[in-house]
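The following block was generated as part of the benchmark described in Methods. Ligand: 2AL.
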Amino acid sequence: MKLLLINPNTSDAMTAGIAQSAQAVAAAGTQIIAVHPSFGPLSIEGHYDEAFAAAGVAEQVRLAQAQRPDGIVIACFGDPGLEAAREATHAPVLGIAEAAFHAASMLATGFSIVTTMTRTCIIAERLVQRYGFEHQCRGVHGTDIAVLDLEDGGEPLTRQIEDVAREALARDRSGAIVLGCAGMSALCHTLTQRLGVPVIDGVSVAVKFAEALAALGLGTSKRGDYATPLRKTYTGWAAPLGWPD
Ligand code: 2AL
């Protein structure tokens, strides 16, 4: 099957890293098509960034229409453009935050999120509320690591995330850690070994959920608000992205 993996930011390096994480867990017969928007922020760390990222996700879903992907994964922790993507396809669409919350809730009664800049903690808290995981998510913790600094990785950075996660587990009395950024994907294995609890990388679980739903023949409902977008004219730079041709 074909999975479209959208990195909503425009970093080539991060897109390649996320693709590697996805490929590592994908089934033998799964082809990962990794893309990022043609415009927008290099990293997503606030509401302004997210506004452009959501449009970028819609652009990529629109452009990939001809390839008929069996599933779509949106690989940024704010799940930008998730519902727009669901309108625009019959395939299942997974956001990494929503997928990670579901996975964590099946593995522990409570989980903590460890994310990047502290200002994004509020965005993650609101996402938890929107998806209805207030009873399972016991805390959201920032590391004040910028998203693009995750590209370099390295032991000091891993240690910094590990220390915040360790404190979160103790303070929140949590049983699992959710990584609050797609750029943390490559650290999941090391952190799992060091922390001794399930560490959930949303990219990995979203890929496996997308595979499972697609294999079961389950796709996005076209009844109600996820129905195909209404035909209309788009203007300005978005003119080629109106629905349908
Ligand atoms: C993210 C993410 O996953 N990708 C990105 O650019 N920003 N999330 C975050 N909390 O900073």
